[in-house]
Amino acid sequence: MIKILVSGASGRMGQETVKALQASTHLKFVGGTLRHDDLAKAITQHNPDVVVDFTVASQGQRHAEIIIEHNVHPVMGTTGFSEKTVKILQELCEKKQLGAIIAPNFSIAAVLMMQYASLTSKYFPDAEIIEAHHPKKEESPSGTAIKTAELIAANRKEKPAAAPHHAIIPHARGATHHDVPIHAIRLPGLIAEQSVIFGGDGETLCITHRTFDRVCFMPGVMLACEKVMMLKKLVYGLENIL
Ligand SMILES: NC(=O)c1ccc[n+]([C@@H]2O[C@H](COP(=O)([O-])OP(=O)(O)OC[C@H]3O[C@@H](n4cnc5c(N)ncnc54)[C@H](OP(=O)(O)O)[C@@H]3O)[C@@H](O)[C@H]2O)c1
Asked: How far, in Å, CA of 131 to CA of 149, rounded?
């Protein structure tokens, strides 16, 4: 049995994770932490093999560092990691030869959406991302949007065409990451959605992923808890362990 501690156990993702762990035959839920709990103390007390973290963007790096310091495998579902932070954590894990996973999206369909976007960017370099989430999401844009923009940039063969830009209202064209404009919507009623729209001469292609229930993230979370035990480095993105 792999012993799992859930950091952020009272949250929407944390509660779903605890439920999934309690139904698992080979992963064991050994404890959870809330906002005011001391993560380091909880790790010492419960002695887990893996800590799954679903908390807040502002605490992501600190939590990952605490988990790594204790030689425990982090599975970071918390979003908002910058490229720079991922690199810092990668170096920490490399020094310790410790397996870790940061996944901006644990949904297999969302990972496929990102992969299709990456493939499409080879043929259509002009792309924009529209992501939409519930209003309690702390950061914007989403980690999925950032990761998608990075995949598009890494795979496209040509630079996107420069559109004329005179903003009547600042940021009317969204934020830009690696030359990919990203537009973030926050509205009640939503969980998480993303569309990647590609434009070519006389046509567009739209790849959309919609989340209706947080249960869709659980197969990815459970898989990450198993696979992280076999890794000797930090892996960024669920697609790398599927
Ligand atoms: N990777 C993915 O597939 C995926 C999918 C969905 C969401 N997410 C991300 O997962 C994270 C959690 O989302 P959620 O919807 O579950 O949020 P949520 O419902 O607001 O839950 C947040 C959890 O973090 C705790 N928390 C809040 N502030 C904290 C702090 N300063 N230090 C330590 N713990 C703190 C909360 O504890 P209290 O209850 O005590 O306040 C709660 O347990 C977010 O970053 C979100 O973007 C990732």
From this structure: 12
The pLDDT score that the predictor gives to residue 138 is: 87
Question: CA-CA distance, 194 to 148, in Å (whole number)?
Answer: 10
Q: What is the mean pLDDT of each run of 10 residues along the chain (242 residues)?
A: 98 98 97 97 98 96 98 96 95 98 95 97 98 94 94 95 86 94 97 97 97 96 98 95 92
Structure tokens at 199: 């434009």
Q: What span, in angstroms and rounded, lies between the C-alpha atoms of 85 and 87? A: 5
Residues flanking ligand 1, CB < 6 Å: 8-14, 34-35, 54-57, 59, 77-79, 103-106, 136-137, 217
Q: Is 40 helix (H, G, I), strand (E, B) or coil?
A: helix
**Cis peptide bond upstream of 135, omega within 30:** no
Pairing of strands 50-53, 100-102: unpaired
Query: Helices 57-69 & 39-46, crossing angle to 10 degrees?
Result: 40
Q: Can you state the angle between helices 218-227 and 12-22, rounded to 10 degrees?
A: 70
Give residue 190 CA to ligand 1 midpoint distance, Å. 16
Residue-level pLDDT at 195: 98
| 122 is an active site residue | no
